[in-house]
Every structure is written in structure tokens, then in C-alpha cells.
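Revision sheet: C-alpha cells.
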Amino acid sequence: MNAHAIDMRQAAHPRDVKRYDTSQLRADFLIESLFEAGRLRLTFSHLDRMIVGGAMPVGAPVALAPYKPTGTPDFLARREVGIINVGGPGMVFASGHAYPLARLDALYLPPGSTAVSFASIEASHPAKFYLLSMPGTRVTVAKLIRQAEARRIELGSPETSNQRMIYQYIVPALCDTNQLVMGLTHLATGSVWNTMPAHTHDRRSEAYLYFDLGPDARVIHLMGEPGETRHLVVANEQAILSPNWSIHSGCGTSSYSFIWGMGGDNVEFTDMDPVAMAELR
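Predicted:
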């Protein structure tokens, strides 16, 4: 099955975003639906030409088919992709290889990978493959990274309501990429804040996927320039596009998890520009 019709998003200038109402903010920066049974959904953003997607196979495998906006015969001819499974056990097929992905396992596929498709082991408990793709031409090596193999960093504390565990999957110490960096953060029970104090990434753009939220839970995602913040109300399995000039932080009505991923000029996880609390407005 070919990809769902792709959503196109243009880059936005911060001076214009200051005048956006809620509907315009959501239209430009929030991806409300990623996982649809039996389909692949993709959003192409002109923020560093990032593509965010979700595949939820329930019967036949779902293929990562050629896509007109890339202008290439294969989706990954001049692109790389990171994949993290947030659903039931599944399989990713690429270039004649089969990669089993349990929940919260990750896979990196380099430029030049072909015949990519996604499958669930059990249709009644389908896999949900979250995809983040960036341009790249240097051919590296595909790598499966299980959650137990990710680099783990504990941050925050109960006193500041931000005790969390960071799992670094697609980072230079574990995986050679062109520009893609990707990982996962899990908030401890009772903690609701992520990434505060805030920061920006002047040299790269980022995407967030919020998940592990209950039906009635929400994350209030803060974005915008430090002196002109805006917010988006985000539900389970919805994603945010975050420009280089924007902070990206959130506070939930319960604990939750999120996948972060970025691409740009620097692949170092610590490449960020801190924003002091006193600067936020």
C-alpha cells in the first residue's frame, strides 16, 4: 500500500507567528494524526526539509513508497530515517534485511536503503512506527538499537516535577548518521515538566512526538521566541514541529513520554542555546 496523501508544511517566520491565532498555530506546527490502521502518514516540513511520519500496519505490510516532493526514485535515495516503535511488536524490512522491533526499539536506515516496508507481528496489537527523516547523501550503516542498548541519562528531580529518564538512540556514540539525532524521554510518575529551563537550537530543527498519555490527559507544549511564547494543547500520539528559533518545552496533566528528533548542522546532543527563566515571557 502506498503512503497516505502527504501533508505539506511551509517554514514560518517568528515575526509572523506572533500574530497567529490558535487555529493557525495548530495548522503550522501540530501534527494531529500520525497512526492510521493500514496506512503510512507523512508530513513534509520545510524546516530543514524534515519528514515526520507514522506507520500502523494491521494486515499486509505498509511500504515506504517513492514520494514526489523528494524528487528521487526511492524515498531514501538522498535521505536517512530514524524509526522508533511505540506500539506492539513489529518488523521493518529494508534492502533485503528484516529487523524485529519490540516496543521502544529503534532502527536507523541510511541513504540508499531500498524496498522499505513495515509489518506488525499481531494485527490485534499492531506496531506503531514513528519515523523522522532528514536529507543525507553519505552512505553509512543500518543499525538496530534496542531500548536496553540506548544511552541512559537521568535528569531532574521530584522537587521540580521534572524527574525523567533520557534514552539516546541515534546519537554519534551509537550510530553514524548524516545529520539525524533521535531519542526518547520518559517522565517519572508525578513529574510533568520537560526541558525547563528552556533552550533553542539555532543550528537545527526538531520534532516531538508525545505519547503514553491517557485519553483525557494533555500536554501544554510551549513554543515561540523566548520573549514571545505561545502554546499548543497536545493529545496522545500527536507531534510538534519545532523551528530553530523556538523554545520547545511542555507540562502535562499526567506523566508521559516523548520522542525527540532533530537534524541540522550539528549532531551533538548538547548543542543548544540555554534560555534563562527570567527571559521567558
